[in-house]
């Protein structure tokens, strides 16, 4: 049931992106010719496979999400940068967080606001559980990649705002979490110089 709700939410968000593309065509020109920095806040759904058979099968749940990026434009329609994305859920004295740090490439087809982003790098899963005065914490690290799509509404010469949908995969093969994935939607804030 959760999976169907997540799929419906992502489909609605993607439809919103398509509808926004036409509306934003009359906005400011998209100039990307130097340094950029940006971040996003939102929510998403994460799923993971436990690395230990004693802990059971798959888990999947919703939580808060955010991302950060910094880099530069090599052309007006292509930027390169360091991308990071994170997801976290806290419930019943337990916290699970998944994070990804990648080298990313963003392509803006037609030099407009629509974009596609991809990155390859490292991921980590951290789980922390409190038992009274005792806290058990574990971290698994490994390979990760992320892909994203969204639309930037250029509100000024230097600032753009817009929605984004992102998918991140973590291949950890760790003691606690074996593999994990995150799908999130967020509102992006980006500055260009």
Strand order of the largest sheet: 1-2-3-4-5-6-8-9
- Named CATH architecture: Beta Barrel
CATH domain class: Mainly Beta
Rg, rounded, reads 18 Å
Series of secondary-structure elements, N-terminal to C-terminal: HEEEEEEEEE
Kindly estimate the percentage of residues that lie in beta strands according to DSSP. over 45%
Largest sheet: 8 strands, antiparallel, barrel
Low-confidence stretches: 21-25
Averaged pLDDT, please? 84
CATH topology: Porin
Number of domains: 1
How many strands?
9
Shape: elongated
How much helicity do the residues have?
10-25%
Can you characterise this structure?
This protein has 193 residues and is mainly beta. It has one domain: Beta Barrel (Porin), CATH 2.40.160. Helix content is 11%, strand content 67%. The protein has 1 helix and 9 strands, in the order H-E-E-E-E-E-E-E-E-E. It has an 8-stranded antiparallel β-barrel. It is elongated. The protein starts with a helix and ends with a strand. Residues 21-25 have low confidence and may be disordered.
Observed structural traits:
193 residues; mainly beta; eight-stranded antiparallel barrel; 1 helix; elongated
Explain the layout of strands and helices.
Blueprint: H1 2-23, E1 35-50, E2 58-75, E3 78-91, E4 94-107, E5 114-131, E6 134-151, E7 153-154, E8 159-171, E9 177-192
């Amino acid at each position: 049931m959760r999976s169907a709700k997540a799929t419906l939410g992502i489909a609605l968000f993607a439809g919103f992106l398509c509808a926004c593309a036409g509306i934003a065509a009359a906005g400011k020109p998209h100039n990307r010719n130097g340094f950029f920095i940006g971040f996003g806040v939102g929510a998403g759904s994460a799923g993971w496979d436990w690395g230990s058979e004693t802990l059971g099968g798959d888990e999947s749940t919703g939580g808060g999400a955010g991302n950060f990026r910094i880099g530069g434009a090599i052309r007006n329609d292509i930027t390169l940068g360091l991308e990071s994305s994170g997801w976290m859920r806290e419930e019943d004295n337990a916290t699970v967080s998944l994070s990804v740090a990648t080298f990313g490439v963003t392509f803006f087809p037609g030099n407009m606001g629509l974009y596609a982003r991809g990155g390859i790098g490292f991921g980590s899963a951290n789980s922390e559980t409190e038992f009274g005065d005792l806290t058990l914490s574990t971290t698994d690290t490994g390979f990760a990649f992320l892909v994203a799509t969204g639309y930037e509404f250029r509100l000024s010469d230097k600032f753009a705002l817009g929605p984004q949908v992102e998918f991140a995969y973590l291949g950890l093969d760790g003691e606690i979490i074996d593999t994990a994935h995150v799908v999130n939607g967020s509102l992006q804030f980006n500055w260009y110089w």
